[in-house]
Specification:
The chain is of the alpha/beta class. It has helices spanning 3-16, 42-46, 48-55, 82-90, 104-112, 162-180, 201-206, 222-248, 295-300, 311-336, 363-374, 392-410, 413-418, and strands at residues 69-71, 93-95, 97-98, 117-120, 122-125, 185-194, 253-256, 286-287, 290-294, 341-350, 380-383, 420-421, 433-441, 444-452, 457-464, 467-473, 478-485, 490-497.
Length: 525
């Protein structure tokens, strides 16, 4: 409590100070996560939009109708202005608008500036079951002499839906207020990480409701209960969250954290390296795979005695992790539900291990993963730039990197808007090798090729069935524009970014004055 007046005085003093040349003082978060992180200047904690204005360049390529990157943190809503909205939009960014009646003025301000309105709400724990009130009406119960953790007594009975019905009506009421105020909501992207998806098998099996309200077959094993609770959670979200949103805003994009298509043939993998249960289509019209650099997830991808330590191996593992869920979900969408969009959550560093056993990925590897996500069919991205104390420079770096790659890929916007993903294959993270991704449209394709790990080599790219091309793969990576020449029966490179290095050792066919040498053919080609 005593620290608050001191922080307030410092904040007021900083606000009263004349405008600083922030662009010269942007904290340069290191490319290598092992390097020392610079101290965070006070202004970074006070004015997030002003920091972005100084530290993130404006887009150099047209965004068209493609949604800007959506930021988890967008700054102080009370200070949000038309100028702020346009400044962010010029950089391909828009803040998420909290699903709260107090945020209607901010939504209207964004709308006035020409930005899409993306609503966000986050919930965890036993919500919405606990909206009922008395735990006796919704919580698991246990035998009188049962020695169970107190937390188990605050877990819900999965099949009691009264709290969900309350949540659905509240959601309708809030959305109708937005609608009546004249807000045109473009998307509702939620972060509900709630029950029943988080109920432990042991708690459900020990409860009095086991075999009664909780089906006995669902409790046959940990795996059976995992399947039951995950599938039930998705259906509850569909009925009580997606449906109310689409009642009020039929054209809005609607999704929730980890809503994806998982099949027996191509299961989507969770952070624990465990396949998610098969899940059918719901009333959500977009999926929401997560591409986070989660240290625990990388650790789960390796045997205990083979945990990566060198920088190349660590980056390779993280790139594979970031591509995993979007690729698996994308393959299923392409096969059984191509009408669904894909909204990808991205974050370079998410630390879940209190004593970190795996270092974070480098910024360069994060940027490379983002390029491949766009070229595997991502329709939009949410940037988790969570502003934790001591982590603001890292949050800024995530915005900078995401915006830089977004602008880079907008050069190929027609492919992003209309192209078809060419591959969803994942790299073998335990060994060095090539990675490629691409989008094809008509008889052209944009392809990104990179070599993950030490050395370099090549990648065999199948652009169209029966047509392949071998492209150089370097550690820096190259983006190619490729054409299908059906008459010649081959694929041809039209351009590359960066262009191939000039071979200075190759003999010249011209004299110093630029004329052809004597005796040489004048025929070109």
């Amino acid at each position: 409590m005593t620290a608050r007046p001191i922080l307030l005085c410092a904040a007021l003093a900083a606000i009263a100070t004349p405008a600083l040349a922030l662009d010269a003082r942007c904290p340069q978060y290191p490319e290598d996560p092992r390097a020392e992180v610079p101290a965070e200047p006070l202004w970074l904690t006070l004015d997030w939009p002003r920091t972005i204005e100084a530290c993130v360049p404006t887009l150099q390529h047209e965004r068209g109708k493609r949604r800007p990157l959506v930021l988890w943190e967008g700054g102080d809503a009370a200070a949000f202005t038309d100028k702020t909205a346009k400044m962010l939009l010029d950089r391909g960014l828009v803040p998420a608008v909290r699903l709260d009646l107090a945020m209607i003025p901010v939504a209207l301000q964004l709308q006035k500036a020409g930005a899409p309105v993306v609503l966000l709400d986050a919930r965890t724990g036993s919500w919405p079951y606990d909206l009922v009130g008395d735990p006796a009406k919704w919580a698991l119960t246990f035998a009188q002499n049962a020695q169970v953790p107190d937390a188990w007594r605050r877990l819900p009975v999965p099949g009691r839906f009264e709290g969900w019905a309350i949540a659905a009506q509240r959601l309708r009421d809030v959305l109708r207020s937005f609608h009546e105020a004249g807000v045109r909501v473009d998307a509702v992207w939620l972060d509900y990480e709630t029950a029943p998806a988080n109920i432990p098998f042991e708690a459900a099996k020990a409860s009095r409701e086991a075999g009664k309200e909780i089906p006995a077959r669902a409790l046959a094993s940990n795996e059976a209960f995992h399947r039951y609770r995950w599938q039930l959670w998705l259906q509850l979200l569909s009925a009580y969250v997606a449906a109310p949103v689409r009642e009020v805003y039929p054209a809005a994009s609607v999704t929730n954290w980890m809503v994806m298509l998982s099949t027996l043939e191509t299961p989507v993998t969770g952070w624990d390296n465990r396949p998610l249960p098969p899940s059918g289509l719901t009333l959500f019209n977009a999926t929401n795979p997560v591409a986070y650099g989660v240290d625990r997830a990388v650790l789960a991808s390796w045997e205990k005695d083979q945990v990566p330590t060198d920088a190349d191996a660590v980056d390779r593992a993280y790139v594979g992790l970031l591509l995993r869920q979007p690729s698996q979900d994308g393959q299923n969408r392409q096969r059984i539900a191509p009408h669904l969009d894909s909204v990808v959550w991205v974050a370079r560093e998410v630390q879940q291990l209190p004593d970190r056993k795996v270092p974070a990925m480098s910024r360069g590897a994060f940027r490379e993963a983002l390029r491949h996500l766009w070229l595997r069919g991502a329709d939009a991205m949410e940037v988790y730039n969570g502003q934790r104390p001591g982590g603001l420079a890292a949050a800024l770096a995530e915005v900078q990197d995401s915006a830089t790659v977004f602008d880079e890929m907008l050069k190929y916007r027609d492919f992003l808007d209309q192209g078809e993903p060419m591959t969803f294959a994942l790299p073998a993270v335990q060994e060095a090798g090539p990675l490629w991704s691409g989008l094809r449209m008509a008889e052209q394709a944009v392809v990104r090729v990179v070599w993950l790990g030490e050395g370099e080599g090549s990648a065999e790219v199948e652009g169209w069935p029966g047509f392949k091309i071998t492209l150089p793969a370097t550690r820096a990576g190259t983006t190619y524009l490729v054409k299908l020449n059906r008459e010649a029966g081959r694929l041809e490179v039209l351009s590359s970014d960066p262009p191939p290095p000039k071979d200075e050792s190759a003999p010249s066919d011209k004299k110093p004055d630029g004329k052809k040498k004597n005796g040489e053919s004048k025929r070109e080609g």
